[in-house]
Amino acid sequence: MLELVRRYVSGYVSLTNEEFALLAEKLEVRTFQRRVQLLRAGEVEYYMNFVVAGLVRMYFYRGKTEVITNIAREGELISSSSSFLSGMPSHYYIETLEPTTLLSITHDNLDEIYGKSVRIERVGRLMTTQFVMQKEEWEYECMRLDTRERFTRFVERYPDLLQRVTQKDLASYLNMKPETFSRLKNQIKKRPAVVKMSIK
């Protein structure tokens, strides 16, 4: 389980065994069943979570409609970042979509190990930068791409999520109506397979 985190962190900075031990000591293993709310709007986010197994979504309400802003799977982070960093109440709900195992760290514990290791602090800074860049790119795509392009781009990147997440949730995440998502998905199923032929 910790090896997954080590591989993830090594994508940013390679830590020594001693440095990684500092981080691992502060990580909490948390397990949840399907459809458990980890955070409700109005609560403070105390954890940054690394998904070891399962799926987690983050959303808010526009009127009575859920608007999903993130779906995190294995090897990804999820948290109400602004609340985690500021200590202010979150605008978001966070909920498991499958039985889920998380490795989590509190803000206080993260600050503590930042004070003990400059390299771990650098990991945190790089991860935060990457998160902000990905969020901005996703927001840009949602505004720039039309409905079909957003759907196609998503399917190319995350084909497994078509089987693991409900159409309603995926439609919300992709900012389209469920019936539009269903139509586009059916078009993919009906698309004839491409047969590659070798020319001799």
Describe the structure.
- It contains nine helices and eight strands.
- The protein has a domain at 2-119: Jelly Rolls.
- Residues 193-200 have low confidence and may be disordered.
- With 200 residues, it is α+β, with helices and mostly antiparallel strands.
- Strand 4 and strand 5 (65-72) form a beta hairpin.
- The strands form two sheets. Strands 1-8-3-6 form a four-stranded antiparallel sheet. Strands 2-7-4-5 form a four-stranded antiparallel sheet.
Average pLDDT, all residues = 88
User: What is the percentage of strand-forming residues?
Assistant: 15-25%
Q: What class, by secondary structure content?
A: alpha+beta
CATH third-tier fold name of one domain: Jelly Rolls
Round the Cα radius of gyration to an integer and report it.
19 Å
Helical proportion, percent range = 40-55%
Largest sheet: 4 strands, antiparallel
CATH arch. level architecture of one domain: Sandwich
Low confidence ranges: 193-200
Number of strands: 8
Helix and strand element order:
HHEEEEEEHEEHHHHHH
Q: Report the total helices.
A: 9
Spatial arrangement of strands, main beta sheet: 1-8-3-6
